[in-house]
Amino acid sequence: MNRRQFILGTIGVGAVTAIGTACSSGSSIEMEHVRSATAITQVYGEGQKLIAVGIEYDSNIDTTKLATSSFTVTGRTVTKVYANTSAAITDTPVNGPFVIVELSPTDSNALLWAGPEPANGGTSGSTDPSAGTAPAGQSSTPASQDPSVAGPPLGSSSKPVIKSATATVSQTGAVTTTAGTTYAGTPTAEVTTTKTVDPLVDLFEQKTFSDATTGQTLQYNLFVPKNYSPARKYPLVLFMHDASVVGADVKGTLVQGLGAVCWASPEDQARHECFVVAPQYQTVVVSDDYNPGPLFETTVNLINTLTSQYSIDTAHMHATGQSMGAMMTLGLNIRHPDLFSTSYVVAGQWPSDQAAPLAHKRLWVTVSQGDAKAYPMGNETMAVVQDNGGQVTTATWDARATQAQFATAVDDVTSKETNINYVSFLPGTVPSTGGGASEHMGTWQIAYSIPGIRDWVMQS
């Protein structure tokens, strides 16, 4: 399975695109007959990437006469060239004014999400409490070797880096219009992107919630179902990000991975129409002492406020999160046991001596066996919930499985019809993130890419 096929399987649609940072002013258009150039981005498990450029011409272009060799993009690998009626990638090219120049997502400079800025001169890495590692630059001990190393303190923040989605294109070969006119290549002329397209992420509205109870202000992203009608009730999914996203722009939680956007994809919405809420936390909400700050309750108050503003089915609200967000998911279920009907917990943990209230909740928990904190604490929690009457199905998966293999594995787990499913990935099978917390941070790159788990969550 190639990378493109994998991403198609993760979201069930041809592409999930997301916003990139706006290009700087002063971009040039030197190519004759070209009106504009648009950067096209896509959210992968590891974050947003610049994966294509849409070049708008002054006439419709004959897609059958385009060649990959007719375009170059500075510093990138061109993989495919075709025409379309809009600045969007497609598997079915058609004649239109846009020439789509697809770029390899494996290029070293394709990734726009760069994570938190390094601290104290260190290299960029995890600043996540659940990772079992100190902020980058403060400890040389990988989380996979020392789970006792403290994470960032409550209320701390960082400034994640999101690179500009900018590309410079040259037309080196001929382009033919549908009228038969040839636009000769001019290798020395260039066009630089001046905007981005984001047909999925643009569906999220950016809002601010002022909580009169806690005195906190919380920015968040809200996806409203396309055909929303107050006359019917809709489920809701709350996604909470990990601590490496703390301090980012409000859209940071949408572009750092699939955890938020996957629920809003057209294919997922066709199966399970729902609201999606993705808060953007500016400070760490819960740290290694498991004593949450005020934004913990602000999140609850936000959800309750939304249920009064929209026609949301309060009996079918779902929580999910990765690492810090997974910790919040568990903590919210313990402190507010009637708030969520089902939760998806990814690479996170909560003290097992507080886990008894989880016994009768509907949970899917996914961790990596190489995660030195989330895995052993997850095992302890499963023992507690079983002792308190919870029914648990346990399974071990290879995170490198194909989508077909994942589908079979999901069917096997769900056939047991237990209220809690506990899946652990074999160590060394999740993607490497280039640091000591790879077994931890690599978990959610796969965990949110499996449609069958999302279906199970939404079927409660």
TrEMBL record:
It comes from the Bacteria. Keywords: Signal. The keyword Signal applies. Gene3D superfamilies: 2.60.40.2180, alpha/beta hydrolase. InterPro entries: AB_hydrolase_fold (IPR029058), EstA_Ig-like_N (IPR041172), Plant_Biomass_Hydrol_Est (IPR050955). Residues 125-147 have a biased composition (Polar residues). SUPFAM superfamilies: alpha/beta-Hydrolases (SSF53474). It comes from Gordonia pseudamarae. Residues 111-160 are annotated as: Disordered. Pfam families: EstA_Ig_like. This is Esterase Ig-like N-terminal domain-containing protein. The lineage of its organism: Bacteria, Bacillati, Actinomycetota, Actinomycetes, Mycobacteriales. Residues 36-184 form the Esterase Ig-like N-terminal domain.
